[in-house]
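Hi there,

I know you've been waiting on this one. I reran it after we fixed the sequence typo, so this is the corrected version. Both the input and the resulting structure follow.
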Amino acid sequence: MKVLVVSKEGRALGLAQRVMREGHPVSMKVVLRSCREVGSGLIPTATPEDIASAELIIADNVPGLKSQITGVPMMQGSMLEKKVKDDATYTGKVLALCGIETPLSEWVYDYNASMTAAADAIIDNHHCVYRSSAGTHIMSGIADTFGAIRCHGVTPYELREYIPGRAVSVGAFWDGITFTGQHVVWKDKDWVVAVQRAEPNAKIVTQGLDKMVPFLKKTDYRGYVRISMVLSGSALYGLDIDFALDLPVIQPLFELYKGELTRFLNSIANGVAVEGEWHNGKAIGVKVNTSTRSGMPFSGVIPENEKHIWLHSAAKNEEGAYIYANHKNPLLYVTAGGKKFCGDWMTSCFNRVRRTLDNLIVEDGYSKSEDVPHIFSDIIEWL
């Protein structure tokens, strides 16, 4: 099967490498000019002939690509992703349409407008959430809220009711018919991401993802879906929806997949229900970054550990050495998986990650791999 990967910044490099290792011809097109060195020497750059003859296209953060290339099965690239990108309020509308309860919120489009009444209405326990393209912040009281507004000056922005509870995400792959590969996600500011498989009948799935099925069946979307939420007592509140393949969740998630990855991706793109071959376990991913400039070499990616290394901003130079290809993006992710009932699985996973990190030689490289709490034990009733 001839596979074409179209990636905005080249972050699908690790995925393209795995498809290639399964024996499929792969080419990659990186959209952003500043990132086009990513993958050089590792994955062939797509030619017009490659694009015309592709049998499967994987679109990584390229919303609306389906409207430009037709007649070829494509994973991601839907107009649905474009709507999410273009309209900051769209995901809230989708959550409400699907019957998923959301915190009370107010979107503000005029920076100069007085928002005292709106802030008063949604602040709970002297807290609220300020969310804009500048980031998401939990604010303490009206003074802090308006301080953030004055500081960032970004519109539109959202003032949202603060819901105390457990922040978590639930995700899966949508094939046009049903979900597969359901899982829950915890992350520490993208440095450490932990994933646990969830049963299709788990409460967090039936009250979250499954409510999106009627909506998704009316779209042309095929790919990854993730809902961010807060679990507060017996209630679930939806916060946001992601339709993106470049999330740092994908790498540890595929630690739990034991089948042929290309076949799985092709089934999703073709809208064919597939029984995913998943381990019923947990996995983590740890980001590795570097403060060095683009072009600096790194080493330590060897056959014994490449299964657990997902390259992001990497390439090979003319001498065949690995180099850092874009200073704005992470260099790579290191992953490790563990079985669901293997005792202290988190420590086991971190020990495996550290062994891989010990083999890497990255100038000024840094990561965050200290132990984190038993992050899923307090929501067991939802799983």
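Quick highlight: The chain has four domains: 3-85, 104-161, 166-274+376-382, 281-367.

Best,
R. S.
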